[in-house]
Every structure is written in C-alpha cells, then in structure tokens.
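User: Quick sanity check before I run a bigger batch. Here is a single chain. Can you write out its predicted 3D structure?
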Amino acid sequence: MPLTPVPPATAPPTTYWAEHAWLDTHVEPGVALDVRDGRIAAVRSGVTTPPPGAEVLRGLTVPGLANTHSHAFHRALRGTAQVGTGTFWTWRETMYQVATRLTPDTYHALARAVYAEMALAGITAVGEFHYLHHGPGGVPYADPNAMGEALIAAAADAGIRITLLDTVYLHGGLTRDGHRPLEGPQLRFGDASADAWHERWSRLRPGGHALIGAAVHSVRAFSAADDYARFAERTDGFPVHVHLSEQPAENEASRAVYGRTPTRLLADSGFWKPTVTAVHATHLTDEDIDLLGTAGTGVCMCPTTERDLADGIGPAVALGRAGCPLSLGSDSHAVIDLLEEARALELDERLRTRTRGHWTSAALLHAATAAGHTALGRPGQGSLTAGADADFAAVALDSVRTAGPVPRLAAEAVVFAATAADVTEVVVAGRRIVRDGVHTAIPDTAGALGAAIAALRA
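Assistant: Done. Predicted structure follows.
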C-alpha cells in the first residue's frame, strides 16, 4: 500500500498574482505564483501589478491550512451540544446518538458539506480520524470500508485533500477494573480484533487527493493485550494518530490497570516516533512531555473543542520546547476556523500564565499549515515555495475585522483578528475551489449542511 498517491486533478498552467503573500517569515507585496501540473513552479517577488492573464488574489495569500484532526459527523452536534451543562462524558452520549443514524450515503452527504465548509475556511487538507466503520450492531457492510470510502469521496467532491486515519477501536472504555466491552452505538466502531482491523485497513488505497493513515482511538479503546508494538510495526511509515490524555479519568484508569500513564504505556511499546501525532495531550506529567519530545512526536491541539467540552488547556508551550511539532485541528467542529484555533493556542496560554507572546504569528501560521501537513503525511507542503503543491488561500485585509493595520502586519491581523468568513479565494492543486467566498462546486454550502443534518433527525 504506497503512501504517496498520484496528484489530484489539476488545472492548466496558470499564474496567480498575490497582492500580498506570506513567505514563511514575512509578508511580501506583489508575488506571482506560477503553477504547473498542480505545483508551484516558481515564486516571483516584486511583481507590482498582475501579469496579463493572471488570476488575482487580493488580501494576504497564505499556504493552504491543514485541519489535522476532524470527526466529520460531529458537525451535526453544533448547537445541540451547547445546550445545558455537563462534561465530556455527557457530551459523548449525545455524539453516540448521531453515530447511530448514519449510513454510507448520509455520511457522504454530511461530510461533503462539512468539507466544503472547511474549504470556505481556507482548509485544503483534512485529517479525518475515522472510527464509525460498520452498520448497526457492528455488522460490516458488504464493502467493509464503505464508510471510509464515503469520506474519501466527500473530500473529492469538496475539492480538498484528505488523510483518512482509519481507527482501531476495540473496547468500550477503561476503568480501574480493566477494559469494558463495546456496547450500544460503540459496536459500530469496533472490529473483532487488532488483526481484523488490520485486514480491513489493508484494503484501503490512496489515490488522487487521498492518503491513508492509521489511528489508535485511545488507551481506553485499545489494550496492551491488543499489542501496541505490533500495531506500531504494521503502520510504520504511515501517519499515525492517537487521542492522548484528553481526560484525567483516562490517566487515572491507566495508572490503576497498568501502573503507568498512557504516554508511558505507549512509550514502553515503542509507539512514539516522528510520524505519530498525539491529539489533545491535555493532562500530561513532566515525564510524559519529555517522552513525547525526545521521540519527536507531533501534538495536535484543538483549542475550540477543548474549551467547548471543558477538557482543559494542554501544556503546548512545554511540548513545543521539548521538541514536539504543534499542529491544529477543529476536532468536533464546534466551529470550523483554523485561524481561531491558531490564536486560541496563544490566547488560552495567556489566560493560564497571565503573560503575552508565547508564539509569534509566524509560529502560529506554521502550526496551521506546514506542521499540520507534515502530521498528515505530506512533509514539505504548506509553504509558498517552488515545488510545493499549489494549495493556498487568500484572506481579505479590508474587512471590518482586518482593515487598518499596515501591510507588513498582515500576518498579525490575519492570525489575531480574521475569521473563516474573511477567506475569499482557495486554490487546491492549482484549481480554484472557492471564488469570492463561494464554493465553486457546492455554492449553497449552508443549504447542503442544513439538509444533511436535517436528514439525520428525520
């Protein structure tokens, strides 16, 4: 199963002219991006006016954003999950009810609209942490990967890239007494064993816009007896993700059963490596942070979900200092806005420490772009450089949120003030998929979202 797919459908040779462009370290005015075969062939600075025939991108053009952690069907919870009080665990019961209603067809319709919403937010690649595999009662579909294939097709329809992180989910939870069996809606998540998961996963193929990765849902859903070392061996070279220490209860149960934190449990099996990304990593010990940093493991922070579910604020500063590349995800899609995720990383840390300036705008843009693409198995992407994929987005600098700052501060204006609503143009593989704030293939994205979610309530 090769990791690198053939390129997605591309546009004819085109030149895009960026009024201002983010070139990794600074804002550059007047930049021409020559695109050939879906890649950036040349980056030319000092081009003060659009060349004849060039496609014009007003505002600040940034590399395409990477949404490192997504559960597409959670988008159906928006609004519903914000009613009343509770915790992560009560929210989970609401999520399970949505999971019971999805079929391959309805999941495709929902994910298609969700991925179009992402495109409108400047997201050109998504990591879909996919564990809703089977039919009611856990009965496999005729095609055991029908749900995953529906997600791959949905991303193609929306024009964005996807890394399908097919997830092994074998147990219903971890308590001080050990692992519980899957029950109720969870039966749809599980394969009969780690070997059964691997057999199904091995049938998935990359191609066009899609890469295949793997995931362990969490230490709650995969046990030491299921063999972490064997999983790591089988998935070596692929992007691998895992929910890690999102809740204190997970840590407490892991210590009770294994005498170790989840991070140490996985470390002792050789799980951590640079191709692995820990998601959330909210409640870690100092030793946990050192283990992740020493291994060069990435960490995906999801601030809008972590605050929506009252999870807590993760030790992102310490993780970065330890050597963990930081990426960002919208996770449960309480909102889909990678610019909000980026600034929330900094602003949440300010609340905790009462100190400003933990990350520069450049560092936050790196987390939202290059670091995310690397976590999704696409190292070297997420930059406006020759040879990179021609994936980029233009953000308005003249909206009520962004107007005023001088052009050299455009990155600060975008990171700390712009929202997804300020994204006006999006290009993937040289093809414009968003024009003037409208998705070119799914122009009524809001209507598509409303219809797909309403169908789950019928």
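Confidence is low (pLDDT under 50) at residues 1-7.

User: Great, the batch can go ahead then.
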